Automatic annotation (TrEMBL):
Entry's family note: Belongs to the NAD(P)-dependent epimerase/dehydratase family.
Domain of life (superkingdom): Bacteria
Positions of the NAD-dependent epimerase/dehydratase domain: 2-225
Species: Cytobacillus kochii
InterPro entries: Epimerase_deHydtase, NAD(P)-bd_dom_sf, NAD(P)_epim/dehydratase
Name of this protein: UDP-glucose 4-epimerase
Any single GO BP term: L-threonine catabolic process
Pfam families: Epimerase
Length: 309
């Protein structure tokens, strides 16, 4: 059985449904700090879990006899930068509690890292799997610390921890909250509503991105990969594409010719974006467990606009 924390978030809400499709509804326990009327919360087992409460998290894991814990609950980059102490306590306290629950129950473990784990001194183009990770954001400090802590639990306690450094994720089911890459989600909603969007990220700012279906497949494929083949664990670079705002606007114009892109740069999120790579190298994920992305910018744009009709 699989327990997901942050199951009502941007990734969690779609991951819960996908895992229920694959492994059976009753085998996937969705948990979050609050409930709602979404399909993830109502289509199968759901428990209220505040990840800063390790006692309850362990009780829920034992009650359902889980053998896999997928820890998704966290604050994203912009929110973390606005509340750094709260971000440390939630992101690192929650992760420690989830790793401890995995250690106590013997469960397999997944938590996402991010391209946010890289910083200004990291090579920006074809960013290697093994490289300098000195991020200048609280979110990045949380992600690098999380990778180190997850590797520690593997080496020290034998917990089967695995992770992915996700790029910006684009989706239409549960809009993200508090990210830096979220402009690439908002632009599609605004294009449908107003045929225009004002980007808080400047022209020419390249960032790695991925469509949600590819992200969900990557989690399942990594978790099912043969552990003997894994030279890395926390966490694998994965990406599908890299683009800057003008490129996504040009793709949208193939469907909405009158679409207009304007700019009103947010200095905080721009500085976060500027500290991240332009395009990372995902060859370790391809070699060690066959990572492959199916959606490029053209295919993602077509699907997003169709789904938002
Ligand atoms: C964020 N969407 O913007 C997340 C992600 C790589 C970006 O970590 O914070």
């Amino acid at each position: 059985k699989i327990m997901i924390t942050g199951a009502l978030g941007q990734i969690g809400s779609e991951l819960t449904l996908k895992l229920r499709e694959i492994y059976g509804t009753d085998h996937v326990i969705a948990t979050d700090i609050r409930s709602n009327d979404s399909e993830a919360a109502t289509s199968g087992p759901f428990e209220m879990v505040d990840v800063t409460d390790g006692k309850t998290m362990l009780e829920v894991a034992k009650k359902h006899q889980v053998d896999s814990i997928i820890h998704m609950a966290a604050l994203l980059s912009a929110t973390a930068e606005a509340n750094p102490v709260f971000a440390w306590n939630l992101n690192m306290g929650g992760l420690m509690n989830a790793l401890e629950a995995a250690r106590e129950t013997g469960a397999q473990f997944f938590t996402p890292s991010s391209i946010g784990a890289f910083g200004p001194s990291t090579p920006k183009d074809l960013t290697p799997q093994d490289t300098i990770c000195r991020p200048t954001t609280m979110y990045g400090v949380n992600k690098v610390s999380g990778e180190l802590l997850s590797d520690y639990y593997y080496h020290k306690f034998g917990v089967d921890t695995r992770g992915l450094r996700f790029p910006g994720l684009v989706s239409y089911v549960t809009p993200p909250g508090g990210g830096t890459t979220d402009y690439a989600v908002e632009i599609y909603y605004e294009a449908m509503k107003n045929k225009a969007y004002t980007s808080y990220i400047a022209k020419g700012t390249y960032m790695d991105m991925m469509y949600m279906p590819d992200a969900l497949n990557a989690i399942v494929n990594l978790m099912e990969a043969d552990p003997a083949k894994l030279l890395h664990r926390n966490s694998f670079n994965v990406t599908a594409m890299s683009f800057e705002p003008e490129q996504i606007a040009a793709e949208i114009r193939k469907h909405i010719p009158e679409f207009v892109l304007m700019y009103d740069v947010d200095p905080v999120r721009q500085s976060i974006a500027d500290s991240w790579p332009n395009a990372i190298d995902a060859s370790a994920a391809k070699e060690e467990w066959g990572f492959k992305a199916e959606y490029d910018l053209a295919r993602m744009t077509e699907d997003m606009l169709n789904k938002l009709k």
